[in-house]
Structure formats: structure tokens, C-alpha cells
Amino acid sequence: MVTSHPEPQAHYGLLESVWASGPSGGALHNALTRHPSTSAHLRRDGDGAWLALVHDAWHAHYVVGAMLPGPDELDTVASEGPASVAAPTIEAIAAAVRDRLLPDYAAALLHGQLAEAEEDLRWAQESYEPGEILEPFDPALAGALARFFNQVPRLIAHVRRPQALQLSPHETAFLDSFEATLGSDGPNGTVAMSLWLTEGDQLLDLARNPDRPRLAPPPATRRVPGPAPALSAARSR
Fold first, then answer.
1. pTM summary value
2. Has residue 236 got a pLDDT over 50?
3. Among 84, 141, 230, 234, which is most buried by a count of CB atoms within 10 Å?
């Protein structure tokens, strides 16, 4: 999806949403402040990658950079975004976006998602004892669980992408159980809460290192997690 912005005032409206490296927002930020000829939003279906393109006629080149992910991708954007790319022709800028910017965008987004998911999980594990969380869940805990399960499909897709190492039967079964839980219990149920607190670390570990095996085979006997969790005092995230 392409949205063009030929008006000069529209360029300044993009500045607050630039997600790029560098102390001043990188090349995209600089291009937007130099009265470019035109700019446009580029939104890709599927992963929702949001980019901005600037045509700087004065300097005879195009600049494309990342825009801040939406709340569905990251609740709080604390990670540094990918560096912008620049080239003198449409063909060259398209190649730079394909070969450099989009892979860097995906890596930066994944880094932020993993950091957010790990922060939520660590907080929950430190604040609540397994078996002591009762429904209805504390709002802060329910929010952290919902953020985690919002990321689960993306994390699993990353682990299963064709370029990653082939999964072992145990790893495949592990990922299948997460998907089945999400489909049957939903992101707010007792089983989902228990699964998150006890198995969330393993999913994050797999997503962080998808190119090498990380999960050991399960033991011969395995203790089934107890009912999901009564609440101790909630700490705001």
C-alpha cells in the first residue's frame, strides 16, 4: 500500500514517526528536513512493515527508512531501528530496500519483540508464585499475558521460517502445543497462563536462536503444571 504526500507540511508530520539509527534519526530524518520533492508511506501486507520513501530532487537521490512499528507489533518501542538506505535511481533504491532495509527491519522488530516478551515474563515470574494465580487475573498480569500471546504467532513463524534449522520432533511438538493452546484456551485462560509462566522461556529461547537446536528432549516423566495461578501484589509494568 502506497500513500503519497506531495505537500511540504506532510513531510514534517512524518518526523515524529521515524524509526531509524543515528543521533538525528538517520538519513531519512535528514531528508525529511531538507524540503524533499515528495514523500510516501509504504506498507507491506503480511508482516506490516512500514517504511517511508523520500525523493530528494535537490540531491538527486531517494531515501527509504523505517517508521515506528504500531502497538500490535511492539507495545513500547525501545530498540533502535534499522539504518535508512539511499540510492540515485528507483531500481537501485528498490534493491537496497529488498536486500538491506527489509532484513534489518525484520531483525530490529524481532529484537524489540523478544525484549518486550522477556521483560514481561521475568516480571511475572518474579512477582507471582506458580499455583497462586487465580482468575480473574490481575489487570497488569493479564496485560502482560496478552502481549506475550500477541507475539506468539510471529515468534513461531520466525522459528519455522524456511531459512531456519530443521526442527526436531520435540521442538515441533512444543510449538504445536503453543498453537493449540492459543486456539483452544485463548490468551486469557488458565491453561494459557500456566503455559506462559512455565514454558515461555523455551519459546523465547527458540525464537532467539532459531538456527540451532535449543530444546532438550523431555524427561521420561514430566510434572504437569498445576492450575494457573492467586495473586500476590501486582507490580505495574
1. 0.75
2. no
3. 84
